[in-house]
Each structure stands twice: as C-alpha cells, then as structure tokens.
Amino acid sequence: MAGLGAWNLARAALIILLLPRSLEQCGHISLSAPIVRLGDPITASCTISQNCSRLDSESHIVWKLEAELQPGERQQYLPNGTLLSTITLPHLNRSRALLSCCLHWGNSLQILDQAELQAGYPPATPHNLSCLMNLTTNSLTCQWEPGPNTHLSTNFTLKSFKSRGNCQSREDSIPDCVPEDGQSHCSIPRKHLQLYQNMGIWVQAKNALGTSVSPKLCLVPMDVVKLEPPTLWARGPSPEVAPPQPGCLRLRWETWKPSLHIDQKCELRHQPLLGEASWDLVGALPSRTLQYELCGLLPSTAYALQMRCTRWRLPGHWSNWSPSLELTTTQRAPTVRMDTWWRQRQLDPRTVDVQLFWQPVPLEEDSGQIQGYLVLRPSDQAGADPMLCNTTELNCTFQLPSEAREVILEAYNTAGTSHPTPVVFLESGGPPLGRLHTVARDPHSLWVGWEPPSPQPRGYVIEWGLGPPSPSGSPKTWRMEHNGSIAGTLLQENIRPFQLYEITVTPLYQDTKGPSQHIYAYSQEMAPSHGPELHLRHIGKTWAQLEWVPEAPELGRSPLTHYTIFWTNAQDRSFSTVLNASSHSFVLRGLEPSSLYHVHLMAASQVWATNSTSLTLMTLALAGRIPSGQAFQTQPTAAWVPGCLPSQRRIPSSCPAFGTPACHPSPRSRC
C-alpha cells in the first residue's frame, strides 16, 4: 500500500483482512508524488501480478477515488504477464483522498490496493513576530501569526542567535525553540539569554512542499520586558491628615517585587461604576511615590480604578492593567436654590396653619445628594423649638403664631446643609394679572396664558390639579417661573386626557404678591352627554315655531358658538339653517300643508358638537290650526296628529306622507 496515513490505516487493514486469500498481494499502487499542491495533477499506476489466480485475458482494472469510479487512461499486459493500468487526476481538489485499485470478483468489485493522496500548500511566511521578556517566568516569549492553513502537517521552529552588533553577524547560536502542536508562541529560557545583548530571532515554517522564514527580529531582551501590574489599595484615615475633600480619592500601591530595582512610570485610569462613561486617564505617575490623591471626581460616586506600569527612561512594554480597586468619593453639602410656595389657613385668632412646598434647583452640574430637608424658625424667635419639620418629602405642614412672617428652609446630607433659604410669607397687595386663558395643545399638555400686569412681576407661581368634582384636598402640581416678562407657559406634568383641570396663576412681586386667579380647562374635551331639548311651540299650515332651553355652561368646557336646525320632509329632502348662540327659538317657514317633517337641533362649539332628541311634526291641513295653548312635543319616533283624541295621537314616524291627518286607535297601531 502506498502512502496510507494513520487516519485510513484501520480502514485499509480491514479491507485486506476481508480479501480472499487468492487475491492477497495481487495488486500494488504507485504514485508520481505522495503529496502535491492543491489543484495540481497527480498520476498513479496499478500493477496486478501474473500469479493472481483471478487474472485472465478478460480482467479489467477499475479505479475509485473515495466512492466515485474514475476512468483509467490505458491498460496493458507487460511481457512478464503483469497487468498495468494508469490514471491521471488533472486537478486534485481535496486535501486528503483515498485512491483504490479494484478488480471484478464475481458480481462485485474487489479492492486490491489503496493509496492515500495528499494535497496542500507550501507554508506562507510567518509574520507579526513579536517578543516580550517575562520576569515572572524568567523567559523570552515570542509569538507570531502562522498564515493561512496549508492543509498539511507544518512544523514551526523559533530560531535565534546572540550578536554583538546589529544582528548582522552571529556570535553564539541558541537552541531551537519548538512550540507545541497548534501553538504560535514559544519561550526561550533565561539560561540561553544575555539580557543586555542583541539577539537575532526569526521563525521557520516547514512542510512537505517547502520552507519559509519570517523577517529577522533584532532586539535586546530587557528592552522588551513587560512588568506585572502593581497592586492598588485605599489609603486609610490618619489623625495627622485631614479627610479627603468631596470629589477626591486617596490610594496607594505596591509595585511587583521582582521589579523593585527597575525605575518605572505608571498610569492611572478611573471610571464610574454606574452608567456608560468611558475610562479617564491620569498621566505618568512616578512609581516610587507609591501614593496619590485623585480629585475632580463626582461626590458620593463609586469609581473603579486601575493602574499599569512600564520601565522609565528605557524601552519596555506596558504591563496589563491591574485588577480594579473600587472606592466611593465623599459627599458634599447640597448646593441648591429652593423654589418655595405655601398655603395658609387661619385656625384661630392667634394661630395659622401653614402648608409649605418646595422644589430644589441645582446650582451646579453636581449639586450634592440630598438626604432630607429642615424647616426652622428664625433665630430671633426665642423660646420656641426651632425645628418645625425634618422630612424627606417636598412639603411640610406646621403651625405658627399669626404674626409670624418667615421660616428657614435647608437641604442636608452627611456632609452638611445647603445655604439657608428664607421663606417670607408675602401679603396679597400687588396688581392682578390680565385676562387668563388656556389652550389644550394635545391630550397630555395645556397652555396657560395671561396678560402681564404693570409693574412687571419678578415671577409667577402656577398650580394645577383636577377640577370639580374632585375633592378639594386633591394633590396639585406647581411650578415657579422666574421670568416675569413671560405671558404664558406649557403645563406637561400630570396632565391626562379628558380631565377637567383647575389652573391657578399668582404673580410675585419684590415684597408682595398679586391675587391668585383661576381658570378651568379640559386637557382633551369631549362633547356634552346631551344637547338642549327641542320643543314645538306653535304650528300652522306652512310654518312651525320651535323653542329650546340652552344648557347651563359647564366648568372648563368650550363656550357654545352656534346652533344648527335640520329638518327633512317625507320625500327625504333636507334643509338646515345656522343660528347664533343666543337664539332660543326659530320658526320653520315654507312648509307644505298636512305634511310630515323630522326635525333635530345641533349645538356646537369650536371643539365639539352634540345633537338634541329628534322631533317629528305634521303641519295643519288647509282647514285647521292647533290653538297655541295646545302646542305639543313629540318623541323622536312619533308625532301628534291634530284633531285626534288623547288615546289616538301617536302615529309611527316611519309612515309615508298622507293627504289628510288620520287618527289611529292606539299608540301600537301600524301604517
């Protein structure tokens, strides 16, 4: 058998064991080359000995590549009686394949010999060769990229030598370094190195089709040293040193012990643990200082810190980043401005109940975390407990003497309190606003506008909450506008569709406030549930007088702008007319005598429209008229007919028109 690899050895052995004894050693395959380039041709020949008991003049050799039959080029008997067949595969496109020489045996095809074909590529030039001196393992480790797969067994060898010059001449050879199978790196032990002497290093790749070598690398081992990262620690408190300022962290580090004799420089980087902020880098730090105070960070924020080092003033590689050290900066006292508002209620002649509201407004990008709020009496109110409230909420209710006009508000955390905010309870003595109006921009916002008074206020307080029938104590949202020149603002917080809101605007002046003004508005307005009820007042042969009672105005609903009356005769001809919002009655003229009409009234505003109940009526015949005292009103589906008894007054509104009124004996009668 020619060139059978290990992967086909068991398979071929089984075939031989199954051969009849008379066919053993009958055939033999010879190859033009055991291994070729992928895609190149390969030629094989198979000879069958004359001693083969099955060989006769009719015998014919058959070729198979794996399971596929292949046509042989020619077949001939040699002078010694041996049968010879050759085959050429023009393009071997498989990296491994099994070629079989076969002979017909009875009704089957019997394999006489097999050969493994191999194809691949010569090795590419290894590239990106680089080396690091590792002081932990005390060895020079080099790595490279081997290039594309050759499909053949390829051996890599790291070769090197010592040199006094620029690696142009060899002084001492260094034993070859052979990596483990499948690895692209290899380490040269310290015993073969001169740490401060040049070395020439390259990689050789070799397989059955050729050999290639990488470009040579010339280096001094200590110039490519890679240190291990330092170990970071938090600096503990010390009685001799003041605590760190807000936004600062103190840390120390220990360098890697085998590198204590090496001058190093280090880099520090930090990143907030929460969020997606990138790493911030702090410049070169001399490693021998072994401690550092990092400032300019956000107060009360957890940070991850890492450090790496390299040789200082000499070539070398940066170490890996150290494991993260997690530290949290201290808090700073809140730096906020307090917007405040209040409501007062007199309990008795000597006591007033105060409900105080506030909103903290940051004065800086990082204004400090707020843990709670204090409401205090002014220091000049001696004898009373100064603490009125200590709360985490944004409001507080307390009682004061009627003559009290001021309290103090502060925000606090573990680092201290904010600048005190005096809250002065202003009296209402300033000029009022001009016309207050609202517009619903969308279902979740309301625009409220006003005419600024004169003199111009220093700001406004806007309150809004659900209007009636909500309870009077329902929570309200409020906002302070500090620009006194504005004439309106958009309310977007806590606005829901189809709700009635009460909006209050109060102007603020330097030492007083103006009277509060209220307005009601729907965030998204629906039409009223029903329209005005339509009545028939008088009727004649060619006219009918209608009247209705306007609906009472509702809080916040858009005002009525007009009415429209629609009437339809028995021939389905429709008519309409538009009336102004002050109209309460209308006379339909030009009607046909003794004719049936359907009438309804539509009331409309700029944003809604609603219909009244339908009214069906019949005009008088030429010889009759209903007295004014006997005017009637119909239901939406029936009409009264003049001259009928009370029990005979209903006719279906779907009846066709008729020339003279007809009385029907009961309301259930049909046309």
TrEMBL record:
Task: Using the UniProt record, give the first listed, main subcellular location.
Answer: membrane
Is Manganese a UniProt keyword of this protein? no
Q: SUPFAM superfamilies, alphabetically? A: Fibronectin type III, Immunoglobulin
Cleavable signal peptide = 1-25
Would the keyword Membrane be found if you checked this record's keyword annotation?
yes
Gene3D superfamilies, alphabetized: Immunoglobulins (2.60.40.10)
Q: Name one GO molecular function term.
A: cytokine receptor activity
Q: Which GO terms describe its cellular component?
A: endocytic vesicle membrane; plasma membrane
Q: Which domain of life is it from?
A: Eukaryota
InterPro entries to which the protein is assigned, alphabetical:
FN3_dom, FN3_sf, Hematopoietin_rcpt_Gp130_CS, Ig-like_dom_sf, Ig-like_fold, IgC2-like_lig-bd, Type1_Cytokine_Rcpt_Type2
Q: Which UniProt keywords apply?
A: Cell adhesion, Disulfide bond, Glycoprotein, Immunoglobulin domain, Membrane, Receptor, Repeat, Signal, Transmembrane, Transmembrane helix
Q: Name one Pfam family in it.
A: fn3
Start and end residues of each Fibronectin type-III domain: 125-230, 236-333, 432-526, 528-619
Q: Where in the cell is it found?
A: Membrane
Q: What's its membrane topology?
A: Single-pass type I membrane protein
The UniProt subunit note reads as follows: Homodimer. The dimeric receptor binds two CSF3 molecules. Interacts with CEACAM1; down-regulates the CSF3R-STAT3 pathway through recruitment of PTPN6 that dephosphorylates CSF3R.
The family annotation for this protein states:
Belongs to the type I cytokine receptor family. Type 2 subfamily.
Q: What name is this protein filed under?
A: Granulocyte colony-stimulating factor receptor
Q: Which organism is it from?
A: Delphinapterus leucas (Beluga whale)
Q: What gene is behind this protein?
A: CSF3R
